[in-house]
Batch of 2 targets.
Target 1
Amino acid sequence: MRKVSVFGATGSIGQNTIDLIDRDPSAYDVVALTGGANIEQLAKDARRLNADIAVTAHEDRLDDLRDALAGTQVEVAAGQTALTEAAARPADWVMSAIVGAAGLPPGLEALKQGATLALANKETLVCAGPLVLETARAHSARLLPVDSEHSAIFQALVGEDIDAVERIIITASGGAFRDWPLSDLANATVEQASSHPNWNMGQRITIDSASMFNKALEVIETKEFFGVAPDQIEVIVHPESIVHSLVGFKDGAVMAHLGAPDMRHAIGYALHWPDRQTLPVERLNLAKLRQLNFHEPDEARYPALRLARNVMERGGLSGAVFNAAKERALDHFIARRIRFLEMAGVVEAVLEKFEAQNGLLDAPLNLDNVLQTDHLARKWADDSVMQKTG
Ligand code: NAD
Ligand code: MG
């Protein structure tokens, strides 16, 4: 039996992961499941899968979790330290599906105990790519991508030499507003931004898809994961989300990964890697699809893409700043304190403020510095919003 843990088990990726585990329960020994405020879901899954431990991120919900799991063998814990401790419990395979930079400490801990880390949490690589790769190397732990684009690229690279790669082409659906005139975007509401045309995902990544901050994070994630140069990464808008990404080789050949927009493709690939197993996903009927569309992204519409390029060129701690400022800008948008198009301005202002302070972005890339930088970037993002809203 394989020992598995799922961090962020109650979320969209977490539930899809549990769906796959549930189809063959005798193959898995569930170590840790973690969640946030949805105690009922967490307890239900921990009970059914007989997890060793269930952890909620919210310390004040520990009693609720304990009550919900009364009469079972499942241990309970709460808070960020408990999450990281749960990641240190030996497991063969750990799903990292917490949303945001909060996924970084447990992800690093899982790598330190040598687990294979299935990385849905793209923020881990954006905030601390070199540290994460070095931790994996030092502990002989494996990192597998779960973001659909990165899973696609990873699969296109099987048996290939990375030096033969000329470019990586990341597809973007364009999100909720891809067909809106630019002039309407200023008034886009939280509700409108929270519905995705193709993918059913958590609210935060759905809004990030509409603003292309999600694609911006993914471009940085690509650079970190595959070690390619920023100018080797292209983004193309592909409204159907059937081609999940492509790799172009130096002989001009392009390998694409196609599939229905269902995250169980990428989760299942990471779960069964290096094998392939039958997955409960829709099969493509190309004749029925008839056509697939592609066009270049408009950088005026998507300033996040330009910011991502700056971050890749700048390096150091700028990824941690970018992500934290983005997370806070998103919080402020969801709280209706700023407008949709103002998010990019907040992020840019914070990046500029960091750049203006000598040395801040060039401190050594260790976990303490990443967390301190994350904290300061959030504060400066809040300050920037305060200045805007008065
Ligand atoms: P979600 O909001 O549906 O779920 C997030 C999970 O993280 C929940 O279990 C929640 O309780 C937990 N969580 C939230 N804040 C936390 C905190 N501060 N500390 C600990 N736990 C916390 O999110 P999702 O859509 O499943 O996305 C999860 C991650 O996977 C994100 O990094 C996202 O970018 C990435 N991802 C998601 C999809 C998708 O289809 N949903 C696709 C690709 C990548
Ligand atoms: Mg993706």
Target 2
Amino acid sequence: MSARGLFITMEGGEGVGKSTNLAFLEHILKQGGIDVVTTREPGGTHLGEEVRELLLRVRGEPVNAVAELLLIFAARAQHIDELIEPALAAGKWVLCDRFTDATYAYQSGGRGVARDTVEQLEKLVQGKLRPDYTLLFDAPVEVGMRRARDRGELDRFEQETLKFFERVRQGYLQQAQIDGNRYRLIDAGQSLDDVQKGLAEFGDELLSRWAMVEARQ
Ligand code: Z5A
């Protein structure tokens, strides 16, 4: 029987390089012989991708912060049940572009929803499921905003203000302090080469630890 897979999440403000580096880490792990599933939030399932479209679309009316929060957790419940848990149980590793740390950072830090409300939904929807590792890509807000804007049209979140993204950044850094062991803080303001050198070391470290776990099975 294979061991339960690892659940690794990539987090950070917009444009910090999560998606680019998720693909890079996936490549390293696959080369190391790991069966990897990549996914994202909101999204990852048909239902989740439909919710993502609802959340990101630019709308004429303001979106209530609790409505936004509940949509995010609705998509997450489906994602866990349909994709994340079955993959982990089958010994696959799941690399996820954003997860609940994003909810603490955006909905609590950014929008001002009480932390306690997010905690309650986290317990309800996830039970004991938490990421094994979280890579937090941190860069000055202007850096990420510039990279996102260089890509063209902005979605509903990307149209937020500098102040909003400053609160999001602080929300993430606060998360990393609360649960320090799980996080790897990555300076995403460095060149992509330097970011990926650090990421390659992290990948090698995980692969050696995994080899020990497998040897014990
Ligand atoms: N959201 C939420 O509010 N609550 C939640 O619980 C969850 C999500 C789960 C969609 O997420 C929105 O959902 C998100 C928050 C909300 N909105 N925001 N903002 P998303 O992950 O799709 O959105 P995103 O942050 O806008 O993703 P992104 O813009 O695709 O950013 P990224 O993945 O971090 O960056 P990237 O695409 O890898 O890189 C951006 C560009 O920079 C690209 O051209 C790269 O080649 C370049 N890049 C990357 N790294 C470097 C370095 N180091 N140097 C130079 N250039 C670089």
